[in-house]
Every structure is written in structure tokens, then in C-alpha cells.
Write a structure and sequence with these properties.
By secondary structure, the protein is of the alpha/beta class. The protein contains four helices and 13 strands. The protein has one domain: NagB/RpiA/CoA transferase-like (Rossmann fold, 3-Layer(aba) Sandwich). The two termini are about 20 Å apart.
């Protein structure tokens, strides 16, 4: 299922509707962030056809001056934490080879979480490493916003969460809040 969703997402992201969908998701993200009023916003560096939340935030005046953070992944022991980020080109690469910040460790109060797939009740299918699930479990007070394309929606028959899967606060797609 993960491979199929990633292939579909790659096709979608290179298709004619992607530009409109990107703008629509960014348009839905703005009021959500305005309502939440984060003190520190945890973003992610987009890979593999993900919605580019960094670009969307850079274009949003509400993000101007907002403290930002990027995740940093360690493979052994498996761990993820956020590092304060100045919004400029990342100065480091984590152990998953994803660009990240070399800033101090920080816990954002609102984080955007990329989704390969998602359910209507907020469960997320990621890349399989469990990094976000472990981080969310350790920080239950944080508001988590799953970011996905609507085509990645999964029914309960397609995806049944395991005991370690953590629900997101909400999921946002180009069609709005799920």
C-alpha cells in the first residue's frame, strides 16, 4: 500500500492539477495556523512529492517572525527531535539524509506532519520508521497537523492502526480539514 500511495503521489505531483492543489492546500493551511497561533511551528523539509510546507509558510505573512523548527532524525538509537531553524537553507543533514537545522533542540507547540496516507479519524501512514509516532507519543500536548493530498485517504478497511500508531490532531488536504 505504501509503495502504491507513493507512486500515485509522485504521479499527482508531476501532473497538471498539482499547481492548483498546492495553492489550495496552502490556502487552507493559513487560517488553521492563524487560529492555532503557534508559538513555534515545526515544519518538515519536503521529500518524495510531499507538499512543500516550507515554501507555503515563507509565502504566508503570518509565518513572518514565527519561530520555526525542523526535525532531526537519528537512526541508532531511533530518535527524532526538532531543532530551531532560521528559515534559511538548512545547514545540516540528519541521519536519514534529509536537510535539517543545526540549531538548538526545541519542542514546537504545533507541528506539520507529512503523510503518505491517512484515515478520516487522524491516523497516518508514513514511511515506516515510526519516528513521528514516537515523537507524538512523547509530546501529547503538541498540536499535530497531518499534511496530505486528498487521494491518500484510506478507509478503515485499508488501514487499521497498530497499537503504536498515534492519531494526529487533524489532517489537512487541498480540499480542507479532514
Amino acid at each position: 500500500m505504501r509503495r502504491r500511495l507513493l507512486a500515485e503521489r509522485a504521479g499527482f505531483a508531476s501532473g497538471a492539477e498539482a499547481t492548483i492543489a498546492n495553492q489550495a492546500l496552502a490556502d487552507h493551511l493559513r487560517p488553521v495556523l492563524a487560529r492555532l497561533e503557534p508559538q513555534t511551528l515545526g515544519l518538515y523539509w519536503a521529500i518524495r512529492s510531499e507538499f512543500n510546507a516550507v515554501v507555503a509558510c515563507a509565502a504566508d505573512p503570518a509565518c513572518a517572525g514565527l519561530p520555526l523548527a525542523l526535525p532531526f532524525v537519528r537512526r541508532e538509537p531511533r530518535d527524532m527531535h526538532y531543532r530551531r531553524w532560521n528559515g534559511k537553507a538548512p545547514g545540516a543533514v540528519d541521519e536519514a539524509r534529509i536537510p535539517t537545522s543545526d540549531g538548538e533542540a526545541i519542542v514546537p507547540d504545533v507541528v506539520l506532519v507529512p503523510c503518505v496516507g491517512f484515515t478520516a479519524d487522524g491516523y497516518r501512514l508514513g514511511y515506516g520508521g515510526g519516528y513521528f509516532d514516537r515523537w507524538i507519543a512523547a509530546h501529547p500536548h503538541v498540536t499535530t497537523i497531518g499534511i496530505a493530498w486528498s487521494a491518500a485517504a484510506l478507509t478503515p478497511e485499508q488501514f487499521q492502526p497498530a497499537p503504536h500508531d498515534m492519531p494526529l490532531t487533524l489532517v489537512l488536504t487541498e480540499r480542507g480539514v479532514v
